[in-house]
Amino acid sequence: MDGAYAIIFLFSNLLLLPYPSLSLPLCTDSRPPVSLNTTLKFCPYNGSTCCNSTEDSQLQKQFQAMSISDPNCASLLQSILCARCDPFSASLFTIASVPRSVPVLCNSTVTNSSQSSQAENNFCSKVWDTCKNVSVLNSPFAPSLQGQAGTSVNSNFTKLTEFWQSETDFCIAFGGASTDESVCFDGEPVKLNKTGTPSPPHGLCLEKIGNGSYLNMAAHPDGSNRAFFSNQEGKIWLATIPKEGSGGTLELDESNPFVDLTDQVHFDTDFGMMGIAFHPNFAQNGRFFASFNCDKSTSPSCAGRCSCNSDVNCDPSKLVPDNGAQPCQYQSVVAEYTTNGTAPQVSLAQSAKPSEVRRIFTMGLPFTSHHGGQILFGPTDGYLYFMMGDGGGNGDPYNFSQNKKSLLGKIMRLDVDNTPSSAEINKLSLWGNYSIPKDNPFSEDADLQPEIWALGLRNPWRCSFDLERPSYFMCGDVGQDLYEEVDIISKGGNYGWRVYEGPYLYTPQSSPGGNTSAKSINPIFPVMGYNHSEVSNNIGSAAIMGGYFYRSTTDPCVYGRYLYADLYAGALWAATEDPENSGNFTTSKIPFSCAKDSPIKCSSVPASSLPALGYIFSFGQDNQKDIFLLASSGVYRITRPSRCNYTCSKENVTSVQTPSPTTAPTSHAYRSDEPYNSLIVLLSSLFLLLLGFA
């Protein structure tokens, strides 16, 4: 085992070669609910809750200060106050807009199929009828100074009839459904209808539209049919995506990249350009960002602090060279670039300047694997999220993932729109030129480094926000020996590594950095995933590729399901949430095939009907909401199921035309450097067969 493991470990990350609607159990502070070992004394919430004993006591004192004489009204007001403890309190109190003093009260005028009978319960009218003439001191129903159902104000009035002229006015202010029309409050803890999991899709149909091998895809922020693709070597291309089913291919000229950063990027089996992100206002300001690795021994600008340092109880002088590299020889970098000056209008830019505008982040890596590197902008907050692995080493020996002073094994959240002063950088010991969002978890947990949004991850590989529900921030996290997982990332969430690997307790082979007790953390377990034994019987390894919620109408039978895959392209999964907005998923491994009329003819795996994808490096999503697979053998798009003879009762097949397949891209705009691509595929095949991305 040691010999094979050494080979696997040597290549362990080579794969990297080439809040409007909330729902979901979430608290008003944007954190996930926690499971308590004790029962709350005042509020009837046990198990998963958004309150601890201190907050429960504070709610009780607030209730007592109301001095409510009527017992029926008192019971209703107690339940309303205690809604702060409900696992769905973020939705109930609509934190995405104006904070509310009370939860959204169920109103009979609202129809809702997601929540268990609550929309039919006119709880708002019940509160009005029961409490309208009852004196309530410091009433939470007092209108705000703006005349809205916002924060209550001091008033000499004590009765609802003194604040509101009628039940209609009262229920307009406080009744209805929450921001996503999924939950409202009826006096009891929120319960969702379990309607039964729909049957999984019969299969996924793919069409091949490109031969190139890419690691990243980002839709153009202008909303057009263009997207950016990048490889691990350090090149970014601007491509035009053909309409689904048109028979067209990806218009991308590999000889003419949008920008070439290869002279800044250290590229070898484990390192390169890991992520790209375009500013939400890119169409106006031309700003974009690249995440890559550099080599301190060859680049003067590659000079970040070492992540193994005394602050995290790590001495770099005691680390042995890893794959011939000295500790922190290789660095993780995020840098800003611009298209300004390359075209009369930013939206017309066909190229960008390869010189850095600003170095956002630089940090030395202790080992040569598990450094993540994806970057993406939050769709509602505009902050840059930066995914970082645990730094490598078998079993995270220094326990960086659980160390709140280390940025390894974390998801960071950075403000790149406000440049910090030198004083701020020094005061907070920042790793570059970025500011800290004021609502990052460190504001409530002084032990956390200010950059940290979530912790306890091993090697997050491909995260995405749901287009329709941005609170669903999904991340695939690559496992060690047993389990590959997908997590819903929440503010301050601890995802368990290396106390847990997925749902299993994990015991490291060595731990010079100490251990974290399972009793000392509240881990958030995966919402989906798979055991290595499910996919690796013939390969000997597994590595998850996090995907997307499918929001395209191209395949209506996949709509709303979360798609993810394994590196080795032998398995794709579709996860269905049931009940909807619950955070509970049922997963199904689904078959996939390539359309016979694919614009570029697909090859098949020998002695199999499966298309020869090679290795799946990543997923992508365009502005039409279509989903793409970025594989070592090319770019594939999920297309209409009927093109692969899959049955989907929701598909309208009468208005579509069948394209004619071609054996190669028909557009001269797609010019692939075949020797280069062949070399990339050969290298990727070599290292991926040996490794396992573990």
Automatic annotation (TrEMBL):
PANTHER family: HEDGEHOG-INTERACTING PROTEIN (PTHR19328), HIPL1 PROTEIN (PTHR19328:SF13). Residues 217-573 form the Glucose/Sorbosone dehydrogenase domain. It is a lipid-anchor. Keywords: Cell membrane, Glycoprotein, Lipoprotein, Membrane, Oxidoreductase, PQQ, Signal. Belongs to the PQQ oxidoreductase GdhB family. Residues 1-23 form the signal peptide. GO terms for molecular function: oxidoreductase activity. This is Glucose/Sorbosone dehydrogenase domain-containing protein. Coiled coil: none annotated. Its cofactor is pyrroloquinoline quinone. It comes from the Eukaryota. It is found in: Cell membrane. It holds the Pfam family GSDH. InterPro entries: 6-blade_b-propeller_TolB-like (IPR011042), Glc/Sorbosone_DH (IPR012938), Quinoprot_gluc/sorb_DH_b-prop (IPR011041). GO terms for cellular component: plasma membrane.
